[in-house]
Amino acid sequence: MYLSVEHLTCGYGGRPVLRDFSAGLDKGAFVAIVGPNGCGKSTLVKALSRGLRPSSGRVVLDGRDVWSMKPRELARQMAVVAQETGIDFDFTVEEIVAMGRLPHLARFGRETEADERAVTEAMAATDLLSIAGRLVTGLSGGERQRVMVARALAQEPRILILDEPTAHLDIAHQIELLDLTRRLNRERGLTVLAVLHDLNLAAQYAGRLLMMKDGCRYAEGAPLEVVSESNVAAVYGSRVRVTVHPEEGSPHVILLSGEGRRDEWAC
Amino acid sequence: MRAIRGRRVIWISAIVLLVTLILAGGVGAVRIPPWEAIRILLSRLPGVDLTADWKATSAVIFWDIRLPRVLMGALVGIALSVAGAAYQGLFKNPLADPGILGVSAGAALGGAVAIAFLSRLQVSGVGTVPFFAFLGGIAAVTVVYRLAAVGRRVPVVGLLLAGVAVGSFSVSLVSLILFFTDRQARDAIVFWMMGGLGGANWEKVAWLLPYMASGIGALLFYWRELNALLLGEESALHLGVDVEHLKRVVLVAGTLLTAASVAFAGTIGFVGLVVPHIVRFLVGPDHRYLLPAAGVVGAIVVVLADTVARSTLPTEIPVGLVMAVLGGPFFLWLLRRRLKPAEA
């Protein structure tokens, strides 16, 4: 296991969202976490990235407890793209992406060629080179999200954690981002853990899914195993039909109307 | 390009500051022309042998009275601007002010207490009023921190609220003192609070220097982390920044700088608010250039304001008053520009 969560109990203000939660992913995996609102997806991501201290349990990355590391050490291995926060300051795209090198820079060191290369590559991968000099305050929500992803890539992490990265993106950019993520996963062996609210995209791109309900693991495995009509009904409380994606072969969920079918709600 | 502009602004401002210091040192009842001022300065250097073709009184006035005064003005300007820039980063608000956490109000309270009740006390070296003003400022922020801290973290919202509360409370206590004390003390307190560099001497400059140097040094040291903090605490955390530690550093450094300034120069408003704002417009939000540039420009502003303060009228106007009269409308104009971008 490259990243594992062991018996994690974690929550906010005394109320645990995750209870005795355990899960893990291997190096080079692309795992998507799915589940309805409030199931604990974001809490799990926060616990993994040291954003939230668990009341019990451990988070282990490459054999080491993340809380035993210095924040910089963890940042050299793990990059997180959280949901987009507004930036009120006039940084350029390039300046923000360059901040991704922070964990690698020595206190009084200057940026080296390696640093500059990492930044340029990150911008190239996210199609930002043409707007590198523009101010972030003038970008659209989707463009800003790509800047955040580029910043994470500039960190040259071994594991990339994405928390609902497609939330503000239009269709073309959603596909672009996930194509990029999948390419980095396959070609560079970047381990990816993504929280995705879109079940179809998760099933299409991830190698494994972890479906959560009420702070617990409900189902785990290949997309075809996890995305079933009964699972979706049990976890999301929605009636769906599951077909097959015509190009990818992954399961594809078709939403069905809930009218006139009250008696079938099982949860 | 931004880097080049940042460096250029810093160098140009530094030269302007040097010129301003020499010219300002020449302004006063006894006019000392710049070339004479430079020669007086040079003659003080060890090993330099210049025949003194200036009046002895000019040299004394320039070296013992004018120079400490303009230097103190410069130090106060640097301190308030750098602290203001740092706080604006911490609170992610380009219009935050160094006094936002109550340090100026606390320092004013300390000074008022010293003037009203402790005038018989003698604090060697720095003087009673600056000593207690400094203590008052530190005490106020300590209370704010204790109020706002939750475990080992200190949420920014809590700091702001506690700062407002402690600040208001300190101000009301000052009013209480003003009400109950005698006229002489009342006048002294009011005049002191309006800000002035009148009693400046080399001893005070020597006292000020270590606080300024350590405060500014600490903030400059963390310029990359301060940049990251502008992305938000969570993002900074993911970049490996120890956010809580950084917040503490900014608080301590900002408090030292502001408390020391108020202790020696009274309350001088708008510098910590307006200078970083203007400088950010020139060099951008990157603290690598913003902090030094804000410092140098702040020094120029305060020295100029002080020069106006002591040369406009026969009696000396408090420098805080000059800043308020000039800075206030300027700030309103800035605000208007910021709130109505479409009209530009």
What do these coordinates show?
The complex is a heterodimer of chains A (267) and B (344). Chain A is an alpha/beta fold. Helix content of chain A is 32%, strand content 26%. Chain A has helices spanning 41-48, 71-77, 93-98, 113-125, 141-154, 171-188, 199-205, 223-226, 229-236, and strands at residues 3-12, 15-25, 30-34, 56-61, 64-65, 78-81, 159-163, 191-195, 208-213, 216-221, 240-244, 251-255. Chain A has a six-stranded mixed beta sheet, with helices on both faces. A four-stranded antiparallel beta sheet of chain A has the order 2-1-4-5, covered by helices on one side. In chain A, helix 4 (113-125) packs antiparallel against helix 5 (141-154). Chain A is globular. The model of chain A has no long low-confidence stretch (mean pLDDT 88). Chain B has 344 residues and is mainly alpha-helical. Chain B has one domain (2-343): ABC transporter involved in vitamin B12 uptake, BtuC, CATH 1.10.3470. Chain B is built from 14 helices and no strands. Chain B has helices at residues 2-26, 34-43, 56-90, 103-117, 128-148, 156-180, 183-193, 202-221, 223-229, 233-238, 243-265, 271-283, 287-311, 319-339. In chain B, helix 1 packs parallel to helix 13 (287-311), helix 4 (103-117) runs antiparallel to helix 7 and helix 8 packs antiparallel against helix 11. The chains are: A alpha/beta (267), B mainly alpha (344). The interface between A and B is medium-sized, with 32 and 24 residues.
Kindly summarize this structure in a few lines:
The complex is a heterodimer of chains A (267) and B (344). Chain A is built from 9 helices and 12 strands. With 267 residues, chain A is of the alpha/beta class.
